[in-house]
Write a structure and sequence with these properties.
Order of helices and strands: EHEEHEHHEEHEHEE
Radius of gyration: 26 Å
Strand content: 15-25%
Number of helices: 6
Largest sheet: 5 strands, mixed
């Protein structure tokens, strides 16, 4: 997702400088009187001033577009502290260690390691995905082609776009249907030949990887989320209808109960 490589974006906040002995009292007052939305939970509410010998604490109060609460202003005046001043802070939380180093130069941040981090591909992995993409191109034969492999790299389904005959028969949807048909057929085998799924593999494409010549559309991307794929690699990007970063990034949507890696193969 582009969020992993975006540079720092700075916004302005009101901040107050007080002796450390007053820090706890001021923080409690700010929590009661100054609203700071959950989108800023990555910001630490206080930091030590640059001058360590002064024993001062700098505390975020509210966004610069809002006026500091009267209660905070009165608190500072009664205790002989200077009025609020403006500081610059990062608008977004850091998703990588390099971002953390850059974003926290103006104000300290909390860092929560994301469930998925940028993927570094080995030379061997690059060769594998290149081969799978060539296979998808051959399957598509001028249209969108899709290949699905299991965790061992074994090909379990291929498909070609068939939306000319039915609007829902995109290559990814056809390939997922092929996986369902193959696994359903395996489950129907009697006796000891029946291929039982491992515990936790109740989803169609659990731990599977999908390689497609074009970015899956929003419909196909949602089907991949529901199928619990592990990774998707695609060739041509779709800025109008792409569901994996072109138009919207469903593979890393925090409100969905599954995320997976996706990368644009160039």
């Amino acid at each position: 997702p582009p969020e992993y490589s975006r540079p720092v974006t700075l916004i302005k906040f009101h901040a107050a400088s007080v002796p450390k002995a007053l820090g706890s009292e001021l923080l409690k007052l700010i929590q009661r009187t100054a609203f700071v939305g959950p989108e800023f939970c990555h910001l630490k509410r206080a930091r030590s001033k640059d001058e360590p010998n002064l024993g001062l604490l700098e505390v975020l109060v509210c966004q610069a577009e809002d006026a500091p609460p009267d209660e905070v202003v009165k608190f500072l005046e009664e205790r002989g502290c200077p009025a609020c001043h403006i500081v610059e802070v990062s608008k977004y939380g850091a998703l990588t260690r390099p971002q953390l180093a850059e974003y926290s130069q103006t104000w300290p941040l909390t860092y929560r390691r994301p469930s998925l981090e940028p993927l570094e591909l080995s030379v061997e992995s690059r060769a594998t995905y290149e081969r799978l993409l060539q296979r998808a191109e051959a399957v598509g034969d001028g249209l969108c082609g899709c290949v699905i492999v299991d965790r061992s790299g074994r090909e379990i389904a291929v498909a070609r776009d068939a939306s000319a005959s039915h609007p829902l028969r995109h290559a990814v949807m056809v390939a997922i249907d092929a996986v369902a048909a193959a696994r359903g057929s395996a489950d129907d085998q009697p006796g000891d030949k029946r291929k039982l799924r491992a515990e936790g593999e109740e989803y169609l494409c659990q731990d599977c990887e999908v390689v497609t010549t074009s970015e899956p559309c929003i419909m196909c991307a949602m089907a991949l989320v529901h199928s619990r794929v592990r990774l998707v690699a695609f060739g041509k990007q779709d800025p109008d209808f792409g569901g994996l970063g072109g138009r919207i990034a469903l593979h890393f949507c925090p409100s969905l109960n599954h995320q997976f890696r996706a990368f644009h193969w160039t």
